[in-house]
Amino acid sequence: MEALVERYLAHVRVEKRLAQRTVELYTLDLEKLTAYAAQANVELLAVQNSHIRRWVAQMHSGGRSGRGIALILSGWRGFYVWLGRQGLVASNPVQDVRAPKSGKPLPKALSVDQAVQLASFSSEGSNPWLEARDAAMVELLYGAGLRVGELTGLDAVASPGARGWIDLQAAEAHVLGKGSKRRSVPVGAKALEALQHWLVLRAQAPESARRATSDALFIGRNGTRLTAQSIWQRLRQRSLQAGLEVPVHPHMLRHSFASHVLQSSSDLRGVQELLGHASITTTQVYTRLDFQHLAKAYDAAHPRAKIK
After folding, report:
1. Active-site hit among 178, 182, 211, 302
2. Which of 50, 204, 208, 223 is the most buried (most CB within 10 A)?
3. Active site residue 254
4. CA nearest 154: which of 166, 145, 143?
5. Which is it for strands 154-155 and 182-186: parallel, antiparallel or unpaired?
6. Active site residue 249
7. Is pLDDT above 80 for 76?
8. Where are the alpha helices (DSSP H) in the chain?
9. How many CB atoms lie within 10 A of CB 55?
């Protein structure tokens, strides 16, 4: 990758202190930009607005969604803003380029029955240590609506430098969310029960894990903090073992949490606080999910819905 790109990635990682996952996404975006520029036989500093528009058209015709293109353009735009501040380009070729519009998809959520089926699942004959850990992760993701990054950031005990922790006595999870904003969310009885069981077994970790020094609540067999990717893989495997038709990912459980709480309470502001959304408009998508649920119930049960 070009030296300028490497310098920019070091800037966002060290000076702007962006999250590791964000830096990884920026890296992929700029690898794509570098590849397009190489194909067009143009230097990155010589890229013009016409080049960007042509590459956007290529991505769109290749099947990439408008939202995906918008995220890529955001990464490219930030790169050229930085180049401008370094005095290396006179104008930003991405500045007035917009991604094609596409319909905003509804977040995928499980039905109440599916969520309960997953949360209640117990893998017979599996490793008790892994079973307790994975069950506690599912209960927290669905029972508290945590993001996967908030889950990985939890420590087993509260400490001055902890990103997040569970207060078993108060039945609360204290997490560090987007924008480094802290919030506390209630933890239900089932999740507390699963957590207490996991904490007992966590102390009986495999020898390789006991030698590790990680304070993380959720650790792997080697004793290190679980990554988001590991949790995705474990949840996918567990959902299929539980007999669900589609593999479940962590954010699907967060969507399910929000949708089910809203169905039961109709308290949009309350759901906003629980999820840690900065804007109520972000939370309002769950009102569409709620209506979608009602529409399906009507189609399935109301006699007039069956008349053609």
Report:
1. 178
2. 223
3. yes
4. 166
5. unpaired
6. no
7. yes
8. 3-10, 20-39, 49-61, 66-85, 112-120, 128-144, 148-152, 189-202, 207-210, 228-241, 250-265, 268-275, 280-283, 285-301
9. 23
Q: Is the per-residue pLDDT at 284 higher than 70?
A: no
Q: Is 308 a catalytic residue?
A: no
Instruction: Please pick, among 32, 190, 277, 293, the residue that the annotation labels catalytic.
Output: 277
Terminal CA-CA length for the chain: 60
How does pLDDT run across 91-116, given as a tens digit for each residue? 899 988 888 876 666 567 888 899 99
Q: Is 77 a catalytic residue?
A: no
Tell me whether residue 255 is one of the annotated catalytic residues: no
Rounded Cα distance between 199 and 230, Å, is 19
This prediction's pTM:
0.61
- Cα–Cα distances in angstroms (integers) from residue 225 to residues 39, 141, 156, 243, 260, in the given order: 41, 17, 11, 28, 30
Average pLDDT for 8-37:
89
Residue 298: per-residue pLDDT: 41
In the three-class reduction of DSSP (H, G, I as helix; E, B as strand; rest coil), residue 165 is classed as strand
* Listed residue (182, 150, 163) closest to 257, CA to CA: 150
Domains of the chain: 3-85 (1.10.150), 112-247 (1.10.443.10)
Exposed / middle / buried, residue 80 (Cβ in 10 Å: 0-12, 13-18, 19+) = buried
Does pLDDT of 281 surpass 50?
Answer: yes
pLDDT score of 287: 63
- Considering only CA atoms, which of 124, 261, 148, 136 is closest in space to residue 199? 136
Cross-sheet strand order for the sheet of 164-167? 154-155, 164-167, 172-176, 182-186
